[in-house]
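Lab manual, section 2.4: Encoding a predicted structure.

Procedure: take the sequence of the chain (379 residues), apply the prediction step described in section 2.3, and record the output as structure tokens. A sample record is shown.
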Amino acid sequence: MSKKIKLAILGGGGDSLIGILHRVASAMFDQFELVGGVFNPDLEESKKFAREIGIETNRVYKDLESFIASERAMNEDERVQVVSILTPNFLHFPMAKQLLENNFHVICEKPLTTTFEEAKILQETQKKSNSIFAVTYTYTGYPMVRQMREMIADGVLGRIQKIDVQYYQGWINPIIHDEEKRANTWRLDPEKSGISCCVGDIGTHAFDMIEYVSGLEIKKILADLNYLYKDNRMDIDGTILLRFDEFVKGVIRTSQIATGEENNFTVSIYGEKAGLKWEQENPNYLYLLEEGEPMRVLKPGHVYNSKLSLDGTKLPPGHPEGIFDSMGNIYKGVARAIRNEPYHPGEFPTMRDGVRGMNFIEKAVESHQKGNIWIEIED
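Recorded output:
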């Protein structure tokens, strides 16, 4: 077996859900070995966490600068090759930039940065480094999302004519209605989260998913966002109209105040011949809708699925796969890229996806602030 790729993680310590998700995903295909990182701003807490998850503490560092200096001093076959950034949003840009400048591969949580300008700088930095860069729009790793992408590319739907994506959560309700809580959570602090909460957190998933599965690019958007309270500086709900071209239009409906909703992410793509619908809370079902025909349900693991879908399927038909598997498929694609092995362009979201996501976030806020007007998304 090939030698495992040495991985370090920034952030994700303690009981962080995203930390658990990335650690499990990285271990899933035996391609990566987690050897250290900076799990917590406090070095002793970071070392304590490393011991809890069974990692030697000699490669747990007090900060990113110490990590880079120590790892760069090692022999090439011993040093960390790829770093996952799981920190709050405002740290993504400075950390990713330093890592790229020192020729590390990077796996970064979304949103890519806190501003579109930072995202463009990061893109130029990557071009100079030739490092692999992945942005973890996690849901692109689901087998039936990948099947959806391939069916659309193969023309099963015909010409696309309507796209409708909903992403509803209710988690911020206990925070937003309490003046003290909403003033003291990093999610609603522009200095730490950027200019958007809801669009920046889950709306960007919807934006990326649309372009991933449809093969189309969103050209213009018109956003109507909701802040709910005058003292709240960041959106927590919004409806965004989309234009792909003169005759192809769509909508993103996104909310974190949809009371009682958990993680209701639904993607519907309608063409002249058929439609496809996928729901994140039931990810193993892809619904095919055709005029005059009964609805068909496609499931993972069957021979009728595409090569890309089957490559992301780890269990026989009838055995549910979930979000850990989805993230694991992204890590598997990154491993292939790092090893310079052939891989499908749909295996992991790239720097370009992250940059377009930041463009979308800023343009959505701009559209709202200017009175709900159409704004172009830069190419």
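Check your result against the sample. The mean pLDDT is 96.
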